[in-house]
């Protein structure tokens, strides 16, 4: 992505809700070199922040509700969570949690866009979001997979003011032209059981080696390593608990 820090409207954080916190911590530490630190406060519920060096890059947490799927989630930075929630609802989205304060670090909400994809809103206070983007092991791209791409464009450009760079095969999202993500139209090749969703991509030195390491650790490959025309080498993987995530070659934008 062309962003190197959280900015209003852009992706600022990604977090995994998982059925086995300790196993997920080990898996991603081995795969990406993360150093996980679990918040010891009981009220934090096991929330774990992963670091590369001193920089926070992602989070891993237990599932907090029975209905919560094992999945990666993407958060977008907003200046005011309450105002953003109003904008989401006015544009046809649905708010399912919040806005609510998270200690002194920020204000948070969870929503669904009109096409059914979940996303999160983050109003920063003490914690702005990821301290590193695009480096190996850090978030490098976010991608919306949806069955209603035209409705998604209408919604996200209205709520966040994103710019849209669309070609015949792929649509890219940006902040004033600085692309940070894209959109894939889900066709009949996607099982109907797979809902629309946001997919984080992490930068890696070697996509093929990362895919092989995922399989060796009990995960699987959903999309084999592929070199995208005029783009990076990418793969889509699944961790041992079932969460999807993407990887791409560090230094090459999606």
UniProtKB/TrEMBL annotation:
Organism in which the protein naturally occurs: Streptomyces mirabilis
Q: Which PROSITE patterns match?
A: VOC
Which segments constitute the VOC domain?
Answer: 10-124, 138-250
Record-linked InterPro entries: Anthracycline_SecMetBiosynth, Glyas_Bleomycin-R_OHBP_Dase, Glyas_Fos-R_dOase_dom, VOC_core
Q: What is this protein called?
A: VOC family protein
SUPFAM superfamilies referenced in this protein's UniProt entry, alphabetically: Glyoxalase/Bleomycin resistance protein/Dihydroxybiphenyl dioxygenase
- Supply the CDD domains for this chain: SgaA_N_like
Q: What PANTHER family is this protein classified in?
A: GB|AAF24581.1, GLYOXALASE-RELATED
């Amino acid at each position: 992505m062309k962003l190197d820090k959280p900015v209003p409207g852009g992706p600022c954080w990604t977090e995994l809700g998982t059925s086995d916190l300790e196993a997920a911590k080990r898996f991603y530490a081995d795969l990406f070199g993360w150093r996980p630190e679990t918040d010891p406060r009981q009220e934090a519920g096991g929330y774990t922040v992963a670091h590369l060096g001193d920089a926070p890059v992602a989070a891993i947490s237990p599932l907090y509700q029975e209905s919560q799927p094992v999945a990666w989630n993407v958060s977008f930075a907003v200046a005011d969570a309450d105002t953003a929630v109003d904008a989401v609802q006015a544009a046809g989205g649905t708010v399912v949690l919040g806005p609510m304060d998270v200690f002194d670090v920020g204000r948070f909400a969870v929503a669904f866009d009109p096409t059914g994809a979940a996303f999160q809103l983050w109003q920063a206070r003490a914690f702005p979001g990821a301290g590193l983007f695009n480096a190996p092991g850090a978030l490098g791209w976010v991608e919306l997979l949806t069955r209603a791409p035209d409705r998604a464009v209408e919604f996200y450009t209205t709520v966040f003011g994103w710019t849209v760079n669309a070609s015949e095969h792929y649509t890219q999202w940006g902040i004033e032209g600085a692309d940070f993500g894209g959109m894939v139209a889900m066709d009949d090749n996607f099982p109907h059981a797979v809902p629309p969703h946001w997919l984080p991509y992490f930068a890696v030195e070697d996509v093929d080696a990362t895919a092989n390491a995922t399989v060796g650790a009990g995960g699987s490959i959903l999309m084999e390593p592929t070199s995208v025309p005029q783009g990076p080498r990418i793969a889509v993987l699944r961790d041992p608990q079932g969460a999807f995530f993407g990887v791409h070659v560090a230094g090459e934008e999606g």
